[in-house]
């Protein structure tokens, strides 16, 4: 059995005398201690792949200083590891074993110990060990801590049984969640925060003989066993060992049913006994315990039968398995009844605690134990950005979520969980999924049918992994490209955002919700309500953010026309959930000032649910209530009373649930408000078919990342490309041309896919399967030479293609002024200058927003806004080589300078580099003509508008736009740009005749 941790305190004066004895003292059958670090200089200060000790921290000030100092009082040898620290974020040091050498085997020992010089500051010091994986920086982290509540040297002795799997951070998302000890890569120490301090450490070593319980464990094949009344549950008990070796000593498992809500002898036949795994039993051996249940004629809620296991000689299961007699005969379980009646019946049976649980959403990695799902009647779990199962496969996702759903079956009414993810451009959480262009690129396509198809592919891939709920699409109207979330917006014009809301139907299906139970549809979320795209630069008070989560100041009319408009159409489209924004809303003249959206009952209850008639449920953003004023009770009360139905409280689900219950009992939140919230949540669960089919339907998993799905993403990537300049018809390229390719984003799938790809912020490099732009050009048959930094000789080429732009980021972190700018990096600028100075050149900007390029525009022959095209770089190659024509249009205004920001279509003063709606084409048939042709098109467009003929109206305006662009060329002026941009807005709002009049105005000014 695991032994308690011990700590040996040795006064400094006695240390020298006691050291020889303490070093030699161990049980006769214990192996001798094995040194890990003596700190005598045998291990250098170095980092991977070398064997070495190194520091780390949250910023440049956080890593501690380290030295190997001569110490007369050193517990072992002449030196000790010493250092100082002053940490504001996080910091510490690590010893990683050499990555090019075999990992170490610690499995023969009981634990690890070391000497630590205490300063009696009362602070906890985290100590973690690294198990399995490829090396010390790609291993599984197991952690524990000790408290500095002593002075002088003390030997800290930690049995391996005290280490727990680290849930808040894993460098590779975990390996197998088993502390194997046979492939160890070192250790790390995390020092206290908010305290200037000194430390000293010495003589890290392995000690003692391993308990069999450290290498042998008993597990059941599940923690919950639902069974129909009258059926027999079969609990499989398995013995497993590290390294799959047979056990040395016998293992016994004593079992007995008892407790729970089922009545022994009435609801089930009690069982008890002992299972024995003799010495020499192979790993993987199983025994089965059967628990018979009894049938009666009554309709009942679910009843639980705990099966208590007592294990000797091995580690016991972490949870007591439970047999659950399924609920039966109750009206809410009748799929033939209308959803409204099922909801009413279920709600009438629920306790306040069960209702509070339904309003609570936890992060899957934030669960103290999976059993908390039943203990707290949790209604929902989510995966935050980067919170993925191991392995990160479709099967891994399905198994993980099914395991959570199984826990929910142990609740009284077996209400299934609704699991949510941020699949904002395809199932971007899943390795190998089809990653679409981000929304700004979808807006550039101006293709509502394609937007719907991208939503349909996303929904199919998400639902096939067992996830029924997607926190998408973002319906923000991005009004300032300095915002780090601007790429999540379809554009700056609410009319454009509304036109792309066909994505909702791609995700959910029909507006009446009748498709939600399909295996290829998910519940969608309109976010972030309301005005998140209008926050003023410099208004954010969140950390170092400059604009994200800031304040949107608007008149009531501006709010209606710009920010609320997309939500009106989303409600008409049947959107199932809405997520409020972190940002604050300040409506001029309403007397409230800036109020956080999660507290604005006038907007959530009044506008969204009342005036717009939204009948889905409102889910908070991640820990958003923590930003509300007052104590926690006030934060909970304020958000719930404002109309937030489910609270995303990733790690504080216990506190939220208990606080909400207290607020209701105190009368500060009404039971009617709770019933409204829970009714809305249950309605969507019934519509999704979760009560009948709570587990993953993986029948569509084979299509994840399939050629058919990637074809949709490829088309979206192609149609999203916006040709801003094309002097001399340089594009499309000819396959016979020798092409010199350079730039940081030509061959980087991570940069190409951007933030919210596998992790929250995304990452550069070879992160996901896909095709880079360079690879796409080669696959298209181009004669291509690549030099990332343009250092290769440039002579002898027909044309250069320089792919530059941004590296990945997400909300807040990507704000301009928070370590980001709208200018190209020095390396990108140098690559553009070198290539464009040597040959005709095409510059592609891979970015989440416009980049300031005006100072180099003269030397660039062709300029393309590529946005963040996703995993299908062939789509970009398709337009570069003419397999598809360029047809994309700017979804946002392209500024001349940062000083112009914010700049948007409709502004009174409007003089951009390129106007909203601009986009040249490489179609083989381009309209010709002049003022007379425009007049003819205007007359026909007016007729189409009167007849409601949208297809004809749009085509006529498009022809006129191309005519104007031909005349304008690169002679853009404010007199051209303003009517040109206005025309695109008028087109999207169905005013074809007025759009033609604006284009005629632009033509005359050109």
Automatic annotation (TrEMBL):
GO annotation terms (biological process): cell communication; cellulose catabolic process
SUPFAM superfamilies per the UniProt record, alphabetical: (Trans)glycosidases (SSF51445), Beta-D-glucan exohydrolase, C-terminal domain (SSF52279), CalX-like (SSF141072), Galactose-binding domain-like (SSF49785)
EC annotation from Swiss-Prot or TrEMBL: 3.2.1.21
Keywords of this entry: Calcium, Glycosidase, Hydrolase, Repeat, Signal
Positions of the Calx-beta domain: 205-310
GO cellular component, as recorded: membrane
UniProt catalytic activity: Hydrolysis of terminal, non-reducing beta-D-glucosyl residues with release of beta-D-glucose
Enzyme class, UniProt record, top EC level: hydrolase
Pfam families documented for this protein: Calx-beta (PF03160), CBM_11 (PF03425), Glyco_hydro_3 (PF00933), Glyco_hydro_3_C (PF01915)
Domain of life of the organism encoding this protein: Bacteria
Signal peptide bounds: 1-27
GO molecular function: beta-glucosidase activity; cellulase activity
Annotated family: Belongs to the glycosyl hydrolase 3 family.
Protein name listed in UniProt: beta-glucosidase
Lineage: Bacteria, Bacillati, Actinomycetota, Actinomycetes, Kitasatosporales
